[in-house]
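*** Query protein ***
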Amino acid sequence: MDVIVTPTPILKGEIQALSSKNYTTRYLLVAALAEGTSTIYYPAHSEDSDAMRRCIRDLGAIVEEDEEKIVITGFGKNPKAVEQLDVGNAGAVLRFLMAIASLCPDVTFINRYPDSLGKRPHNDLIDALGQMGVKIEHNEGKLPIRIQGGAPTGGKIQVSGNVSSQFLSALLFLTPLLEEDSEIEVLHDLKSKVVVGQTLEVLEQAGIVIHASEDLMNYRIPGGQMYAAKKYVVQGDYPGSAAILAAAAVTNSDVIVHRLEEHSKQGERAVVDVLRMMEVPMTHENGIVHVKGNGKLKAVEFDGDKATDAVLAMVAAAVFAEGTSRFYDVENLRYKECDRITDYLNELRKAGANVEERQAEIIVHGRPEGVEGGVEINAHYDHRVIMALTVVGLRAKNPIRIRDAHHVAKSYPIYFDHLKALGANVEWVE
């Protein structure tokens, strides 16, 4: 399904932020790793969280749900032996479960999205699990991946943080369950440290003890631990809300978004600070963000590694800012559902934006007068690209058609419903 985004000068209304995808997937996993029954309130409903639900069920967890909660009876450190797992297009779910699947004798992760997740490399995690005695067959680090484990061992483990923090998070979920104590050393650099902070926060809530160095590059993990069965409440999602807030910023708006905690550990909370730096009129208090956009924005410079999943939305806002904006330290965007630098910028150019790329930077020469639009663009099966291109379409001079926009369901299935509720002129077409 495609979406046609027709220029919309005014947005107005109130919405409830979606629940956080990142926290939901982590809570689902720690609940599955507990022996006993956990309850997760206000879980996110998206393709990613659905993939985690499906896989932990396959591994032996009992999952019962209604509209506002999920009740999970976990399998502890003894997942059921399965022949294969299907994570769909969910990279974080794949990586977390590659580690947990090393407790199984023989399981293959299948490749259902050869043009998206199937292109992404996982060598750094494969190397780390290899150090733990796990045998892995793979396609040059890519899916399909066969893990022959059963008895991974702790000890000294090294993992690169250059490409993704998800490899480290995967090891942090696994190592507490091993008999031996473990020490993890992160090599090179560590991308998306704020997301590692979310993993550590969830592990602590689940009763797990991890000793992390201040720079998050070294960890001591006592072995023989057990995950506790707990109750968890999922907070509102900043990465998805970033696109809504950017849409409000580039239009004449009066938009309120509820359930966005001021002191959240989600790095994408920085979208509020960046829009303020762009001089967008807004307030943020009591978990409510209120944007009174006038369509006038100033250029910014921002370290994108602090808010990886909000960068594309901020870039979309910067397309209409006065001056030149620069988003730096963003190379890890290249290793997502698509190359979120080259692929995204190519589509922005089609719409009329003036953008440049470096290996680890996005440079935006703002066009406050707007962009031409009137084109069909390819979102490369990427939910974040779809949302960000929609922001540009709202302020273009002519409608934009976004191909395969239904892939927004990966993280935000009701994104276009929310935009319509605020008055946006968006329409699904075959």
Observations:
- Residues 193-205 form the longest helix (13 residues).
- The mean pLDDT is 97.
- The first strand starts at residue 2 and ends at 6.
- The chain has twelve helices and 24 strands.
